[in-house]
Amino acid sequence: MTLKDVKTEQTVTVQKINGSGAVKRRIMDMGITKGVEIYVRKVAPLGDPVEITVRGYELSVRKADAEMVEVQ
Q: How far is CA 32 from CA 5, 16, 22, 59, in A?
C-alpha cells in the first residue's frame, strides 16, 4: 500500500521509498524516512495534495510523491 491509498485520520509507518535521484532526496529531506510514523490529516477533494503530520509538523504532499512512499 502507498501513502496515496491511506484514508484520512489513519496512522501508518513508512516501509520503503521508491524512486530515485532528486525526487527521492526531496521526500527524505521532508522527514519521510523508513520507519517514521505518518498521520494522514486530510485529503483534498480531488485527491491532490494530501495533508500529513510527520515528526510533529504538518506537511502537504503531492499525490505523485505520495505514490512513491510504501507504508504499512
A: 16, 10, 14, 10
pTM given for the model: 0.85
CA distance 9 to 12: 10
Q: Are 13 and 35 in contact (CB under 8 A)?
A: yes
In degrees to the nearest 10, what's the CA dihedral of 41, 60, 50, 54?
-50
Q: In which residue are the cell numbers 505518518 written?
A: 38
Give CA–CA dist 28/35, Å, rounded.
12
pLDDT for 36:
95
- Give pLDDT tens digits for 5-63: 888 999 999 999 998 889 899 999 999 999 999 999 998 888 789 999 999 999 999 99
